[in-house]
Specification:
With about 90 residues, the chain is an all-alpha fold. Helices cover about 75% and strands about 0% of the residues. Helix 2 runs antiparallel to helix 4 (about 65-90).
Amino acid sequence: MLKYNILAIANKLNIKELEKKSLKSFLEKESLNLKTEFLMLSFKYGLKNIKGFEKAVKEGKIKETEETRDDFFRLDYLENRIKIVESFLKDF
């Protein structure tokens, strides 16, 4: 348990927008982490997005295995999560 809460720290440091700045910083870091993981996984298959993955599987360029299914679902999750985080960042 923290000794101080966000409001107490903000008051002591005279920072009125500490919570907002903290949230923005968290979202920026989260966005970077998600994008990095997405790029690393998409480079594995030479793709730019999840639709390209679906197309490559249908065309037989990517063989459907347990690993590729897991990667597909992870890419899909990451792509959607990036959109959500980016939409929050637009509000700052």
